[in-house]
Specification:
The protein is an alpha/beta fold. Helix content is about 35%, strand content about 20%.
Length: about 400
């Protein structure tokens, strides 16, 4: 029998498990959380409830498969070591653990200021602050916020800021105010339903998305390799239309071709960023000499991407996993270990993670070798021990009700 370990059970991990179990491969899936939902749960803002429910259902179906052993609340590198799992003769070990560590802001001094946030804790705050007993990070939303980044995730951060600014003005005026409904309809339309004009809210400073390239290079729609030039230009034009539509619904600003170069500090308070403007040459931003200026901001949020967390014994190449083949996700220096999804792609969207998982599992499934009966006994013993440590009895759906 073939038996694999999958680290992380969200989009890429469950996608790989679906492919592998269809081929008769036993899959042991460990996940650091109570449920294997990853960034579907706390990477997507809470207005994505339909998409979230749909993805939850897909994952639940896989976790209930007879060839899947799920191990919750178990974090590689903390609860079990890489050496412990690598010493088991698995057919393969797949890293589908996503990227949970925010990419450090290039000016590290910014982290000492209380009005600076990284995207992951910021979105977590928005998803949960309204819940009874919430004890996570606290955020004070202010006008004239700056969001550094580009792409759909950073646009979501801009949306959150604009929704919160509107909520501060109208929550007491609208019976049964619903911020999620406002997110679905867009701020102007939702307010109009309640006979409120957005301009009357007197919000002085909308959030500004600060992007180092131009909008045509912002990853809002995919542009496949080898696309003919006319289609490439059409896709780039579509990106600007997508962004314009978002701005009309959520009323944020965009400063394209803008690169932070320093901090604007007044009396030891962070009051904005020093910036440089650039022009795009052959798809790359080139700084314009003498373009330095100050971009004021009362709140600054870094949305420049996430990285996988380093784990002792796992080969790293700087701040990312050391992968020798992007398609198969093959790790350098260790045998029968492959990565997939956001852990190696650097793209935090569901589609990219699913495509990566399908590609990796397709390329590796025929290479998997049967494990010995002694290895199966070892796996059975380890799974039992891991599950008992977290009081999980193997009944996935019953476990879900305890969340």
């Amino acid at each position: 029998m073939k038996a694999v370990l999958i680290i992380g059970g969200a989009v890429s991990g469950s996608t790989a498990a679906k492919k592998l179990t269809a081929e008769g491969v036993r899959c042991v899936i460990i996940d650091q959380n109570h449920m294997p939902y990853g960034k579907i749960e706390d990477g997507l803002p809470r207005w994505h409830e339909k998409q979230r429910t749909k993805e939850y259902s897909k994952i639940d179906d896989i976790m209930c498969h007879e060839l899947v052993d799920f191990v919750p609340l178990t974090r590689l590198g903390k609860d079990i070591s890489f050496e412990d799992i690598y010493n088991i003769d698995w057919s393969c070990v797949y890293f589908a653990n996503g990227a949970w560590k925010d990419r450090p802001f290039p000016i590290s001094e910014i982290e000492r200021f209380s009005n600076f946030y990284y995207q992951n804790p910021f979105v977590y705050w928005f998803n949960h602050y309204h819940e009874n007993g919430y004890s996570g990070p606290s955020v004070e939303i202010k006008e004239n916020a700056l969001v550094i980044g580009g792409g759909l995730a950073s646009i979501d951060v801009c949306k959150i800021i604009q929704l919160e600014l509107a909520r501060q003005k109208v929550e007491s005026k609208i019976e049964d105010f619903d911020i999620v409904a406002m997110a679905h309809k867009g701020i102007p339309k939702y307010l109009a339903l309640h006979d409120i004009d957005y301009k009357a809210l007197n919000i002085q400073g909308a959030a500004t998305l600060v992007y180092r390239r131009d909008v045509e290079n912002m990853p809002l729609t995919t542009i496949p390799d080898n696309l003919d030039p006319a289609m490439v230009e059409e896709r780039k034009s579509a990106r600007r239309k997508v962004l314009k539509n978002m701005q009309e619904k959520f009323l944020f600003n965009v400063s394209e071709c803008t690169q932070p170069s320093g901090l604007h500090i007044v009396d030891d308070n962070l009051e904005g960023l020093e910036i440089l403007k650039s022009k795009i040459v052959d798809g790359k931003p080139i700084t314009i000499e003498g373009s330095n200026s100050i971009l004021k901001g009362s709140l600054i949020i870094s949305s420049i991407g996430s990285l996988p967390e380093p784990i002792d014994g796992v080969p790293m190449d700087g701040s990312t996993y050391n992968i020798v083949d992007k398609e198969s996700g093959k790790f350098d220096e260790v045998d029968k270990v492959h990565g997939m999804g956001n852990a190696i792609t650097g793209q935090g969207n569901i589609k990219a993670s699913r495509v990566s998982a399908k590609t990796v599992s397709d390329l590796t499934v025929d290479l998997l070798k049967d494990v010995s009966s002694d290895t199966i006994d070892t796996i059975n013993s380890k799974v039992k021990d891991w599950q008992e440590k977290v009081s999980y009895d193997g009944n996935y759906l019953e476990w879900k009700t305890k969340k």
